[in-house]
Design a protein that fits this description.
The structure holds two protein chains of two kinds. Chain A is mainly beta. Chain A has no helices and eleven strands. In chain A, strands 2, 4, 5, 6, 9, 10 and 11 form a seven-stranded mixed β-sheet that branches. A four-stranded antiparallel β-sheet of chain A has the order 1-3-8-7, with no helix packed on it. The termini of chain A are far apart. By secondary structure, chain B is mainly β. Chain B has no helices and eleven strands. In chain B, strands 2, 4, 5, 6, 9, 10 and 11 form a seven-stranded mixed β-sheet that branches. In chain B, β7 and β8 form a beta hairpin. In chain B, 38% of the residues are buried. The chains are: A mainly beta, B mainly beta. The interface between A and B is medium-sized, with 21 and 26 residues.
Chain lengths: 118, 112
């Protein structure tokens, strides 16, 4: 059974940093694209970043370029996103999702909440 | 970026009645490989999103056959033939042909 479990969220001041993690199990992690998708409170879904199987290709939504860094450790079956220079508008639940191709997100984690506030 | 526009934004449907959600994209979602990368996701209350439909009309594993997707190019529709209580939630269309992947605003479906 595929499982994705996010962690690392919390309350952080504007300008602060966090590292979000997603522990994966039940599939060959190194073979899959993985993505982060976020949802601001009461709002819709927004794709944030994706990374390919071996970690050599990364993509970001414009609003986080230069501030967020997606990475994966295939030995540890873990996906990460380092989020820096946080802004109030980054407040959201961050979901990791497995992408089996062209945005087919077939498995999602439960999400981790990031709150940016002073 | 491709803009995805859903209508209506909310639906109140008596149980057993049909429901339909429209999704329009600002660009064609037909790829040069012949496939159309349009998806439907459902987010039930308090839960993570889940995949319902991929490639316009293919139901994901375990999705009941009362859900069906149709459309082509830039116009797409999700239909529920007979709404059940477990179908409540917010439905999102999403395009996967170009990055950034973009979602529609969501359509909230409730039982009347």
């Amino acid at each position: 059974e595929v499982q994705l479990v996010e962690s690392g969220g919390g309350l952080v001041q504007p300008g602060g940093s966090l590292r979000l993690s997603c522990a994966a199990s039940g599939f060959t992690f190194r073979s899959y694209y993985m993505s982060w998708v976020r949802q601001a409170p009461g709002k819709g879904l927004e794709w944030v970043a994706s990374i390919n199987g071996d970690g050599s290709v990364r993509h970001y939504v414009d609003s986080v370029k230069g501030r967020f860094t997606i990475s994966k450790d295939n030995a540890e079956n873990s996906l990460y996103v380092q989020v820096n220079s946080l802004r109030a508008e980054d407040t959201a639940v961050y979901y990791c999702a497995r992408d089996i191709g062209f945005g087919r997100y077939d498995n999602w984690g439960q999400g981790t909440l990031v709150t940016v506030s002073s | 970026d491709i803009v995805m526009t859903q209508t209506p934004l909310s639906l109140s449907v008596p149980p057993g009645q049909p429901a339909s959600i429209s999704c329009k994209s600002s660009q064609s979602l037909l790829h040069s490989d012949g496939k159309t990368y349009l998806y439907w996701y459902l987010q039930k209350p308090g839960q993570s999103p889940q995949l319902l439909i991929y490639g316009v009309a293919s139901r994901f594993s375990g999705v009941p056959d009362r859900f069906s997707g149709s459309g082509s190019g830039t116009d797409f529709t999700l239909k529920i033939s007979r709404v059940e209580a477990e179908d409540v939630g917010v439905y999102y269309c999403m395009q996967g042909i170009h990055l950034p992947h973009t979602f529609g605003q969501g359509t909230k479906v409730e039982i009347k």
